[in-house]
Write a structure and sequence with these properties.
The structure holds two protein chains of two kinds. In chain A, helix 3 runs antiparallel to helix 4, helix 3 runs antiparallel to helix 8 and helix 4 packs parallel to helix 6. Chain A is globular. Chain A is an all-alpha fold. Chain B is built from seven helices and no strands. Chain B is an all-alpha fold. In chain B, helix 4 packs antiparallel against helix 5. Classes of the chains: A mainly alpha, B mainly alpha. Chains A and B meet through helix 1, helix 2, helix 4 and helix 7 of A and helix 1, helix 2, helix 4, helix 6 and helix 7 of B.
Chain lengths: ~200, ~170
């Protein structure tokens, strides 16, 4: 039997995608500004650190394993708390062991995915929130001189969010047995990546 | 030197191409998309009125203003409202619309020397901002279902987070 797709089922992602594509558009030279450079620089940023990238995917994987509402609540909580960490980083607050915290987040999140650990939403949200502070703090300090802040950080946040959604998307295959094994294997790999960074972190 | 047509085109995409303005507009559209069609139309009118006021002020020679900072605050407010899925009273949405419009206008001083080109850019900036708001709000409002609501909440959190960081960068660095 053919699957009937609701007429509007593609409009929501289209609208959101349209909105964010607009943010990536080139600057209107008539008004000045360098939004495009900031945006692309910020968008690339999360992909430059393997430990950061792995931890972001793990957030999505864990959300998918926990199911609703964690499936969408974790990707919603993370950027907001990460922004607060970023504010501390921008303010020049010194926090020792940030790199270890980021690597440690990949280890912990990788392990919970590998073990398919269940947790109440408040616990998962708190844990992910604490890790988000580390990630935000580190990246808040990395705004390049001269970059448009709104462009850089919108690119950075969107890329981070897309990594979460990639994790959620991949994590949804865990409803099948083979998929569950694949997701948990990826979780194990993320934990190993985190451990490697943890051992070499300053 | 650019032509009038180029000036119109540049002005039309201006609000989308300057990230602080784009964030505020998308945030406003996310909030307005939860309202009925009449409220969305009124919000678009308030946005247009705000743009007229802000762009007129710029045309009248208003210099540097903290509009970019205030736009970030608007984006944070609308992003948080969208992320929390709060159904706001119409007056809040209209207030956000008019303030966002004024600030986008004030944040858009044209960088051209010709009066004709400056007017073309300013008019196109206003039309482009309203058109983009209507497009995003109507596309989102035309959709239904749980995934639409989740997508709008996640997008709201992205907007709020980006604006918080942008505001901090502008004030703390």
């Amino acid at each position: 039997m053919a699957t009937i797709v609701p007429r509007h089922s593609l409009l929501a992602p289209l609208g959101v995608a349209l909105a964010f594509l607009a943010l990536a558009a080139g600057p209107a030279l008539a008004h000045g500004g360098n939004g495009i450079d900031g945006f692309t620089g910020g968008f690339r940023h999360p992909f430059l650190g393997l430990d950061h990238m792995a931890a972001m995917v793990a957030v999505g994987l864990w959300g998918a394993l926990l199911g609703a509402p964690a499936l969408w609540a974790l990707p919603l909580i993370f950027p907001l708390i990460m922004a607060l960490g970023g504010v501390a980083g921008l303010a020049g607050v010194e926090v020792p062991g940030i790199e270890r915290g980021i690597a440690g987040s990949a280890v912990v999140l990788g392990v919970v995915v590998a073990l398919a650990m269940r947790a109440p939403l408040w616990f998962a949200g708190t844990m992910v929130g604490v890790f988000a502070l580390f990630h935000g703090f580190a990246h808040g300090r990395e705004l390049p001189a001269g970059a448009d802040p709104a462009g850089f950080f919108s690119g950075f946040v969107i890329a981070t969010g897309l990594l979460h959604l990639t994790g959620v998307g991949f994590g949804l295959i865990s409803r099948w047995r083979v998929g569950d094994i694949a997701v948990r294997t990826v979780g194990g790999a993320i934990a190993l990546i985190g451990a490697a960074f943890l051992l070499t972190a300053p | 030197m650019i032509t009038t047509v180029e000036a119109l085109a540049l002005g039309f995409v201006n609000a989308l191409a300057i990230p602080a303005q784009g964030l505020a507009l998308v945030g406003l559209a996310l909030v307005a998309a939860r309202d009925g069609p009449r409220q969305r139309r009124v919000a678009a009118i308030f946005l247009a009125l705000g743009l007229c006021a802000g762009l007129s002020a710029i045309a009248a020679g208003t210099g540097e203003t903290p509009a970019a900072l205030l736009l970030a605050i608007c984006a944070i407010a609308s992003g948080v409202i969208a992320a929390m899925a709060i159904r706001s009273p119409a007056s809040v949405v209209y207030g956000l619309a008019v303030v966002t419009g004024v600030l986008i206008g004030l944040d858009s001083p044209p960088r051209v020397f010709s009066l004709r080109l400056a007017v073309a850019i300013l008019v196109a900036t206003g039309i482009g901002a309203v058109a983009f708001f209507i497009l995003v709000a109507e596309v989102l409002a035309a959709t239904r279902g749980r995934w639409r609501d989740i997508g709008m909440r996640i997008a709201g959190s992205w907007i709020a987070a980006s604006a918080i960081l942008a505001l901090a960068a502008r004030t703390l660095r």
